[in-house]
Q: What sequence folds into this?
């Protein structure tokens, strides 16, 4: 049994069958990539896992519990964090404040009202946020307005915010889309480091084959809303069906 | 000091000094001088400064921090006033019973209105709050006449129970015998300064709730509210439920409004439905934006600015204008008065509209941004003078 079990998930948008009978099993502590051509239904699948969409059919189990019918914040509190295709951070806040929010969420849950305590005197939270920034080599940016960072740094901050919650499963939707080569390589190194050093499972949606083969130890190929094949990277590379459906197209 | 950082402590001290010395500061012109009409140091106006300041401080906790723009906050103002007047009618004129009740009732209504309205965001939220406020206005104006006394307005009558009223007790609002209406007048040369009990009472309440708002702004709760404004999507996917945070902010700001409404009835023992009208809801929006949304002091400045100019402009009439421009040739004098006429007296709202447009276009951060720009300009001028003379070699900041 994997930490994430997707069974027979289907989702229609009007006349369009975006997902049909998707089965997926993500093993604990693995890096599982979901690849497929544009419009294959990758983002739709991810949205079904985090509570943004509710599938029409099938079940999604995380660590033995169903996530269906729960709100995004409840699913997050179960231990699933998500990185967006374009970095979603609190761009009106400083980098340190950005980092403090997931730390509060981890400690206090979905809602708790500290209306009189001073934010900066919550030593435990400030320490944790600063520590996390240090670990991600962003300590020098703590006081910076987060909107003024580069795209690569925003991505790094978003990942750091997810990690601060110590999630068991980290979902990433095309984390390197629109990035320059150097930023892409940095992100690959960062994710490698995260999966090596932490007790964490990563599921990554990716278009870029370079990223996929650098990171993944398991790959699912999605085409037109159904999984074509699920295998180890070596076998995916040589699989003629995959080449035809996907690799051939981009080559 | 008291859990505030250095910057906030100095801000607090400045506000304390300004409010405590307001009777002097606002009366810079001698009584008999032509400029006396620009004085603002009389009780009625000073009370309005601080009461609307409280209203705007509370509104800013919702709008400034979360970005949810309510167009219905005047409903809570009215609820606060009715609560206080009812306590006069049932118990006695001591405001100590009515004010906590005003805050409580406004809070209860805010829970109900906020719970429904906050199911939507953006313009739909604004429309929902506006609808609720108009409903409250209509209820107060006609349907609930037994409670609100309809269009006459709620007031105290001789046959009201007033069960706690003592034999020698004041028959106007007071706090344990300190009568709100009473003033002490100080004559210094040609100047006269008025120290009014009601003003000082409201000012102390404002200082307390201003301090509270600083604490809220700097708290983890305040951080969450700013996060709601910045990116609700990220907040939900960070395991936080935005709804109770926004509801809490809505209720707190509703309670501030209830308190402000209660204080209005503490200065003048009346409550009328017109206090709940949409124009009053819109006014607090203008005050907050004009002063500087999301800043600590902005809403207070905005409230003072609007109330001051409302007072000045609506007092000016054609006779005064003719006096001012009497130095001009007759035809020209009439023309100038004719042009200015629509902007004064009852036309004050036209002036307010123009002022508001100018501020929004040229100073999106409101009066606070204006102040900051002036501060920067003075600093940079000071610096360039220093470097010109070349005498100082202080290290850069
Ligand atoms: N909210 C939606 N409403 C209607 N159609 C949608 C919606 N989201 C996605 N789709 C459609 O579903 C298909 C799969 O989309 P998506 O999951 O975004 O693909 P991918 O991420 O693999 O590129 C596409 O044809 C897309 O147009
Ligand atoms: Mg996609």
A:
């Amino acid at each position: 049994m994997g930490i994430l079990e997707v069974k027979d998930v289907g989702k229609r948008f009007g006349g369009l069958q975006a997902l049909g009978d998707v089965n997926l099993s993500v093993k604990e502590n693995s890096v599982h990539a979901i690849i497929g051509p544009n419009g294959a239904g990758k983002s739709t699948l991810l949205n079904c896992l985090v509570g943004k969409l509710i599938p029409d059919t099938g079940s999604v189990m995380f660590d033995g519990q169903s996530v269906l019918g729960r709100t995004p914040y409840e699913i997050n509190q179960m231990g699933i964090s998500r990185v967006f295709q374009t970095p979603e951070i609190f761009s009106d806040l400083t980098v340190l404040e950005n980092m403090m929010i997931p730390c509060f969420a981890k400690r206090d849950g979905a809602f708790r009202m500290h209306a009189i305590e001073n934010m900066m005197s919550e030593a435990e939270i400030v320490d944790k946020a600063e520590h996390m920034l240090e670990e991600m080599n962003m300590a020098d940016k703590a006081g910076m307005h987060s909107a003024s960072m580069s795209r690569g740094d925003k991505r790094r901050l978003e990942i750091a915010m997810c990690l601060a919650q110590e999630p068991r499963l980290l979902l990433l939707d095309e984390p390197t889309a629109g990035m320059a080569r150097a930023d892409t390589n940095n992100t690959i190194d960062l994710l490698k480091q995260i999966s090596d050093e932490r007790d964490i499972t990563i599921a990554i949606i990716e278009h870029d084959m370079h990223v996929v083969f650098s990171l993944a130890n398991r790959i699912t190929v999605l085409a037109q809303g159904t999984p074509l094949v699920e295998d180890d990277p070596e076998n995916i590379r040589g699989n003629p069906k995959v080449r035809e459906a996907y690799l051939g197209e981009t080559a | 000091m008291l859990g505030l950082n250095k910057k906030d402590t100095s801000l607090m001290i400045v506000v304390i000094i300004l409010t405590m010395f307001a009777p002097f500061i606002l009366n810079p012109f001698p009584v008999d001088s032509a400029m006396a009409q620009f004085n603002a140091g009389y009780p009625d106006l000073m009370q309005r400064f601080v009461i609307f300041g409280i209203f705007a401080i509370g509104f800013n906790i919702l709008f400034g921090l979360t970005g949810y723009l309510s167009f219905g906050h005047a409903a809570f103002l009215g609820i606060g006033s009715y609560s206080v007047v009812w306590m006069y009618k049932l118990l006695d004129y001591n405001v100590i019973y009515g004010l906590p009740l005003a805050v409580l009732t406004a809070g209860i209504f805010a829970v109900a209105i906020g719970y429904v309205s906050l199911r939507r965001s953006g313009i739909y939220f604004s429309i929902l709050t506006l609808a609720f406020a108009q409903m409250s206005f209509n209820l107060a104006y006609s349907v609930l006449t037994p409670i609100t006394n309809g269009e006459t307005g709620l007031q105290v009558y001789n046959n009201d129970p007033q069960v706690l009223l003592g034999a020698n007790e004041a028959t106007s609002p007071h706090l344990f015998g300190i009568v709100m209406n009473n003033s002490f007048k100080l004559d210094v040369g040609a100047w006269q300064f008025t120290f009014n009990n009601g003003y000082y009472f409201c000012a102390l309440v404002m200082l307390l709730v201003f301090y509270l708002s600083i604490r809220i702004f700097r708290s983890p709760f305040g951080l969450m509210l700013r996060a709601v404004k910045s990116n609700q999507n990220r907040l939900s996917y960070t395991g936080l439920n935005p709804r109770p945070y926004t509801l809490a902010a809505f209720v707190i700001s509703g309670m501030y409004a209830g308190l402000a409404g209660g204080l209005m009835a503490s200065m003048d023992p009346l409550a009328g439905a017109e206090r709940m009208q949409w124009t009053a809801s819109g006014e607090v929006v203008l005050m907050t934006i004009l002063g500087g949304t999301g800043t600590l002091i902005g809403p207070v400045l905005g409230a003072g600015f609007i109330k001051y100019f409302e007072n000045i402009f609506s007092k000016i009439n054609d006779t005064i204008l003719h006096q001012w421009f009497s130095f001009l040739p007759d035809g020209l004098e009439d023309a100038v008065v004719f042009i200015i006429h629509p902007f004064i007296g009852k036309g004050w709202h036209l002036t307010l509209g123009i002022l508001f447009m100018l501020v929004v276009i040229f100073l999106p951060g409101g009066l606070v941004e204006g102040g900051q720009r002036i501060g920067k300009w003075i600093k940079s001028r000071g610096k360039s003078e220093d470097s010109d003379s070349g005498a100082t070699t202080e290290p850069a900041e």
Notes: Chain B touches chain A through 29 residues (CB under 8 Å). The beta strands of chain B are 154-155, 174-175, 178-179, 183-188, 191-196, 270-271. The first strand of chain B starts at residue 154 and ends at 155.
